[in-house]
């Protein structure tokens, strides 16, 4: 964590007046990582809290939506989907310069490496099983029942996302990348056959999950900035795409790692666990769905690169994160080129009941 970047002289009195139970004085430290919305640990007399705010400077339209993060986490609080308890949302930028919200600090473990290298081999499959289970719980949430029926536009989610991220990529483009240009051509106008509605996290990676300190149990899903209403397979496909990234990137994947020898379920076994939890069927164009997510991730990291070059990045590691753009674009192009390969097998698929 790094030193304070918050005006505590204004923030602490505001929290004492608006956040029940909060009592200063307090100190603040910025969490490492978090390329989009800066996130801080607030340690006060009354306990530890997390504050998440928008970055300073000129922002892309619809980006860095801490207001949406607060809303979705509050709505999911009573459900089986594990999220931190949220405190308050402040949309008054005069307090610390931007809108922000607070939530409980979760005492747990965050794994930045999906290989779970510091976990005994025989326990790794249990952690992946828990990820599949929680993803299934999220998929089964009825958005309308939790007050999120208007949280996004229904229908054509993937097609609209492709259009959005093409626009976002063009807005932050710094050079021409042939793989990105080819992906834009391949993905433009594409929409998967399954267009049913589900709540989508939008950035479901292993480093956005907080596990119990000693058990394979997820106690909180973080970083809901990109959440919306979309198709049910979006988050599982994104998670699997991230695992296909190489081992040596800023965002670590499993790359060519021999998963079986490391006690990690194969992609097929992981998908079957998810199917049991979610009761979903899989699309025939699985690789193209993965290619879409690789493109989307490349567009996101291109935004980090642009902010890094402009001197407005949230994290000191922004340069390393920005280098992922070309890696993700190359992965996406390979996946798009192999979309005719059916996966998983028809016999292993299940239908939602």
TrEMBL record:
Q: Which UniProt keywords apply?
A: Transferase
Q: By its UniProt entry, which Pfam families does this protein fall under?
A: APH (PF01636)
Molecular function terms, GO-annotated: transferase activity
Q: Which source organism?
A: Borborobacter arsenicus
PANTHER family documented for this protein: AMINOGLYCOSIDE PHOSPHOTRANSFERASE DOMAIN-CONTAINING PROTEIN (PTHR47829:SF3), HYDROLASE, PUTATIVE (AFU_ORTHOLOGUE AFUA_1G12880)-RELATED (PTHR47829)
Does the UniProt entry include the keyword Transferase?
A: yes
Per UniProt, residues of the Aminoglycoside phosphotransferase domain are 28-248
Enumerate the Gene3D superfamilies for this protein: 3.90.1200.10, Phosphorylase Kinase, domain 1 (3.30.200.20)
Q: What is this protein called?
A: Phosphotransferase family protein
Locate the coiled-coil region(s) and give their ranges.
none
What InterPro entries does this protein's entry cite? ACAD10-like, ACAD10_11_N, Aminoglycoside_PTrfase, Kinase-like_dom_sf
């Amino acid at each position: 964590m790094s030193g304070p970047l918050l005006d505590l002289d204004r923030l602490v009195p505001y929290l004492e007046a608006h956040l029940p139970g909060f009592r200063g004085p307090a100190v603040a430290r910025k969490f490492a990582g978090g390329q989009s919305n800066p996130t801080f640990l607030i340690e006060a007399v009354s306990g530890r809290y997390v504050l998440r705010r928008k970055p300073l400077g000129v922002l892309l339209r619809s980006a860095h939506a801490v207001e949406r993060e607060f809303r979705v986490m509050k709505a999911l609080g009573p459900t089986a989907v594990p999220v931190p308890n949220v405190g308050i949302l402040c949309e008054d930028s005069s307090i610390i310069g931007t809108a922000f919200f607070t939530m409980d600090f979760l005492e747990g473990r965050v794994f930045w490496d999906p290989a779970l290298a510091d976990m005994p081999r025989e326990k790794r499959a249990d952690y992946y099983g828990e990820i599949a289970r929680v993803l299934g719980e999220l998929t089964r949430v009825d958005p309308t029942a939790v007050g999120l029926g208007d949280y996004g536009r229904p229908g054509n989610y993937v097609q609209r996302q492709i259009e959005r991220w093409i626009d976002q990529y063009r807005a932050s483009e710094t050079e021409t990348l042939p793989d990105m240009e080819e992906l834009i051509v391949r993905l433009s106008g594409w929409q998967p056959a399954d267009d049913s509605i589900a709540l989508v996290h939008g950035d479901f990676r292993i480093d956005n999950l907080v596990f119990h300190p000693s058990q394979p149990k997820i106690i909180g899903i973080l970083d809901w900035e990109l959440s919306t209403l979309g198709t049910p397979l979006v988050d599982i496909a994104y998670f699997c795409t991230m695992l296909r990234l190489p081992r040596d990137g800023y965002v670590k994947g499993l790359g060519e790692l021999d998963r079986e020898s490391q006690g990690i379920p194969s992609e097929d076994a992981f998908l079957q666990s998810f199917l049991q939890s979610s009761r979903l069927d899989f699309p025939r164009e699985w690789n193209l769905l993965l290619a879409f997510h690789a493109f989307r991730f490349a567009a996101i990291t291109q935004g980090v690169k642009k902010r890094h070059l402009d001197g407005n990045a949230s994290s000191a590691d922004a340069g390393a994160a920005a280098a992922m753009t070309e890696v993700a674009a190359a992965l996406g192009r390979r996946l798009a080129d192999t979309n005719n390969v059916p996966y998983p097998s028809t016999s292993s698929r299940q239908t939602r009941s």
